[in-house]
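[Automated response] Your request has been received and processed.

Submitted sequence:
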Amino acid sequence: MINRIPANIEKPALVGKGGNFPMEIFFVITIMIILVSYKLQKNNKLKQENEYYKLKLSELQNAKEIQDSTIELCNGVEEIYDFIENNKIGMIVIIDKDKNVSYISPLLKKILGYTNEAKKVDLNDYICEDDITIKNQNLKLILDGKCQSFVMDIRILNNYGEYHWFECRFNKMENQQDTDFLVSFVDINERQITKEKLMYSNELNESLLDSLDLKVAGFDNKYNVIVANQAMQKVCESSLNYKIKISDIYMNDSIIKDKIDLILSGKAEKISFEHCMKIHDREIWYKVDLKSNNEYGGIISYRDISKTKKLNDSLISSDLRYQKLIERLPCAVFLQDINGITYCNKEALKLLKISDASLVLGTPLIDFVHIDSKRSHVEKFLGTDTNTISAVEQVLVNVQGGLIDVEIDRTKAVVDGKMMDIYIVRDISEKLRAQAYKESLIEKEKQLIESKEYDRIRTEFFANISHELRTPINIISSAVQLIDSLDLDKTNDINNITKFSGIIRQNCSRLLRLVNNLIDITRIESGFYKVKMELYNIVNVVEEITLSLVNYIESKGLTITFDTYIEECYAYCDIDSIERIMLNLLANAVKFTDTGGEIVVTIYEENNKIVISVKDNGIGIPTEKKQAIFERFRQVDKTLGRKYEGSGIGLSLVKLLVELQNGNITLTSELNKGSDFKIMFPIVDNTLNEENIYNLNLKADRVNMEFSDIYFEK
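Generated structure:
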């Protein structure tokens, strides 16, 4: 905790006509004059008080000359007060024994901004509550005869709503009838503001200063000591009755005084040096740091490095062989005690780019740790754990500001009966660069694998497309050959022609569907595919599409059910894309569901979205294949002899079409239990009744095209 130094201002001796004389004599004379004048006005007993005044003055014969000069200047109480204030002795306030203010200096009222007040100003109404309590306690001590005077700092609320600081000297004035108090006010507001600014600066952080064995003091540019931490006060033997002087701070050492002069003159902003001083017949080595605090003054700190120097000498003399070994180590080594680094090898100097070890001795290693690593450094190394700590990655900062990636090991050892921290620091910059290079190679290898996978998928796609193109072409070719071999005059052959033409038509639809899907995917990815977003009752649209396919689906021996939990729900969508999406999903459900299976189309609302579910109890999809099902050209069964036809681009196109309409699609599936595709679109409030009426106009050719991969029993 930083203790506030009592702000006793040293007053210069006054000079009268007869020369120099002690301040105390003049102050006694002044008090007597004030008392006499005050009683003359109060009791209207001019003659009696003049005799009393003369009697008191006669007791001070050794100051007669200054008495005469003072009487000449002061013809009344107002002139006496003006004399005191003009000579900057203080601003006078008189308080009676009941603590009421009977007189207040006009200059004091002016400083506080109460010169225009019509009513009498009572300072007790404006003094800070805490200060009033202390003041009254001390006045009681005077009245009880336990002391004659006291000095304290008081805060008074000015007319601008701010507290103004004064140093107040309370003196007892006693005559035959009453006991009054004469108070001398000295304006210390500027000094207090300077003090507070210094106290709140980062260099004077209280917890840091008092927790470390570091002597710190702050002083203003007039060589007044503003603050000093406990360690500094202890050296100066400070007490409440003693004000620390600047000579105490530099310990009467001319070298340190010269450095302080350089700081306050602006010739240097920061000075750091080691210095040996003799204190109480004992030589002590200090690392002295001086720093300018802009226009407010400066800060000085002393760190006792005597033990560090002694330990360093001991290590050099007794462990020379081990030092040579350490010097040859390819990694940096630091020895540290509570005062900082006591030893470092050449690699350590090289690591920190320091030419001389003395520049780092006495400095804790954490001072070279990058700010982003400081918390980790404290948690790992500065706790109570005494075990060996290995391979902690940190970032250090060398004296040139360069960052160094390091790996730190720490162990503890007893040296000369004291616990020491031994840090072994390895520069891992090259290791990290090699690791980054390795990761780069891994990434490139990954990209190569992905490229090969893409090539494999592309090859697979072309093989798949070739199969998809060849199969319908072969069927068409076979059907044409059969037609050519028929006798058109026979009735049975005419019926066969009708059958074969249907086969040709279906496979032409397969080819056209494949080509259309390829074209549309290309258009979507290139941004040329346009959707016409209009407001529709999506429940009605899905219901109409589903019911129109009942005959197709039931012809394969399946049942289809449409169920809705809401009668109407509106969404912006492209109606052609919705038809295409539903036809594709239903065609997939039919294709992968065995005879006797069931398909259920359900609509419901969830999280302000309309959900369309197409669910079947078919063969399902393995868990590892779910992610790939929406990828272009991917199929669960990749063999050319697969049971179900298809190019593997249908669901990829469905996903793109859904996303074009601000929707999304998900899949829930379990092998041999079926699949559930869910499409979600944002719901729109149709408060203006602007929806478009959906007229089902699914042409047979479009349905046949989407279902062309499925061969129905005829």
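Summary generated for your ticket: The radius of gyration is 50 Å. The CA atoms of residues 349 and 356 lie 7 Å apart.
If you did not submit this request, please reply to this message.
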